[in-house]
Amino acid sequence: LRAASYRRAQNRAAAAFDHFVTIYALWRERLLARAERSLDVRLIHNHLDVPPAELAAPVAHGPPRLCFAGRFDRHQKGIDLLIETFDHLRNHPAATPMQWVFIGTGPYEQELREACERMSGGPLSFEFHGWQSSAIKLMSDCQALVLPSRLEGVPTVVAEALTLGLRVFAYAIPGADRLLSDTPLTAPFDTRAMAEAIVQHWATPRIAATPTTNAYLHMLRDGARFRREVLDVYRGATSTEETHA
């Protein structure tokens, strides 16, 4: 029912307007496919501005810290998949102690808290930090980000995690794969395989993480590019208004 309501809202928006601005080429493609007619859809990609003080690779101290940052939503963000992953982790014979850090809030927070209370002890421990205007500082104290989403654009939180040098665990969904082209992704939505990937990462000797980049991530961090896109969209909008006048 939620998905049907979302699709109807998309259809209404695509029918009611001719001009759009979006932050992802992926959303542009989805909008044009939904509209099935000619639309003017402009792009202003996000600007990723991580303070230099936060760019040092995370220091490992005690058990590994893994974070989830975002809205506690079941249908899009996969909170139910995350809870299933915890169940596999706590019963995994090779699982080592790990600390889970939650940054955010949302409609399924109570369900998540109850699951964490039920599963705490053994290898898993949990901490909740609520909504934050910026998650960077908390993320910089972690070694990994877990993205259990079913649907994404090109997630800013993944770009931030890569900039900080965090290992990212995610499902192979459109959008996430544009930033994680060099990172092994888990088949959607295999929670047992996700748990296995997390366990094996810390069971295998590895070189300390360092900040990484790819072409898309480099583009997001380019402030001059961001200013150009904003100005181009603004000029295009004002010229359209003048033509109509």
Percent of residues in beta strands: 5-15%
Regions with pLDDT < 50 over 5+ consecutive residues?
none
Q: Could you spell the SSE succession in H and E letters?
A: HEHEEHEHEHEHEHHHH
Task: Report the count of strand segments.
Answer: 7
Strand order of the largest sheet: 5-4-3-6-7
- Overall, the morphology is globular
- Ends distance: 43 Å
Q: Main beta sheet, described? A: 5 strands, parallel
Average of the residue pLDDT scores: 86
Helix percent reads 40-55%
Radius of gyration: 20 Å
Number of continuous helical runs: 10
| Class from secondary-structure proportions | alpha/beta
Structure, described:
The protein is α/β, with parallel strands linked by helices and 245 residues long. Strand 4 (98-103), helix 4 and strand 5 (124-128) form a beta-alpha-beta unit. 44% of the residues lie in helices and 13% in strands. The mean pLDDT is 86.
Short note summarizing the structure:
The protein is α/β, with parallel strands linked by helices and 245 residues long. It has helices spanning 2-16, 25-35, 79-90, 109-119, 136-140, 156-164, 176-179, 191-203, 215-220, 223-244; strands spanning 19-22, 40-43, 65-69, 98-103, 124-128, 144-147, 167-170. It is built from ten helices and seven strands.
